[in-house]
User: Which sequence fits this backbone?
């Protein structure tokens, strides 16, 4: 309970800072991308997972250099396999599929066509699955479940293309463990994700001509 209250407090502070001027111009759009992710503290050596990312974003302009952006993303994390949990050439000895709704809240600094971003992210685990192929360890889903809420930190860089398109690279890492230590592993588990994405602006606030006159 204390952990959830701390997460909510952090997000309220960040978002209130971003909304210090309610008249700030805003933009909204769609995001589609591809991620490479891994899970620390896994039982066996496994390949990193690869999955698609999709969602929406909403951006507020704070001043000439800074914007604040929040997103609603649907993404997968974990280890082993490929898109859809399938690996055509080789089966990973340890596969973990974590399906998240994630809400990053980011501060972005713009310099010409390039922007830098950083900020926390709050994820909610929708469902998960785990497979230990050829491993003697028991099924751990019930005894050692993954924590439903995830607090992460994001840092990235992006490039603005034309007026409504942007490309971005972002690294995300859990700040708190998403699973405690399990048998044969002394370390807690954390998510780590590298995402490549393309964003498309859908709407841009227009200036009110009546106020300018």
Assistant:
């Amino acid at each position: 309970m204390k952990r959830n209250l701390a997460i909510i407090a952090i997000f309220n502070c960040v978002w209130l800072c971003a909304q210090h001027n309610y008249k700030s111009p805003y933009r909204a759009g769609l995001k589609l991308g591809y991620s490479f992710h891994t899970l620390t503290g896994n039982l066996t050596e496994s390949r990193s997972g690869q999955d698609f990312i999709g969602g929406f974003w909403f951006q507020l302009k704070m001043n000439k250099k800074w914007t604040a952006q929040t997103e609603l993303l649907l993404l997968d994390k974990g280890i082993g396999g490929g898109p859809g949990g399938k690996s055509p050439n080789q089966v990973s000895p340890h596969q973990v599929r974590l399906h998240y709704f994630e809400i990053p809240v980011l501060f972005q600094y713009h310099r010409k066509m390039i922007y830098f971003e950083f900020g926390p992210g709050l994820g909610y685990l929708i469902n998960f699955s785990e497979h230990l192929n050829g491993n003697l360890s028991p099924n751990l889903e019930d005894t050692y479940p993954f924590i439903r809420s995830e607090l992460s930190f994001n840092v990235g860089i992006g490039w603005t293309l034309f007026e409504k398109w942007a490309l971005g690279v972002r690294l995300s890492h859990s700040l708190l463990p998403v699973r405690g230590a399990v048998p044969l592993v002394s370390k807690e588990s954390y998510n780590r994700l590298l995402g490549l994405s393309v964003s498309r602006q859908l709407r841009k606030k227009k200036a009110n001509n009546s106020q300018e006159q």
Q: What stands out?
A: Confidence is low (pLDDT under 50) at residues 83-88, 209-213. The helical segments are 2-18, 209-212. Residues 181 and 188 are 4 Å apart (CA to CA). DSSP finds two helices and eight strands in the chain.
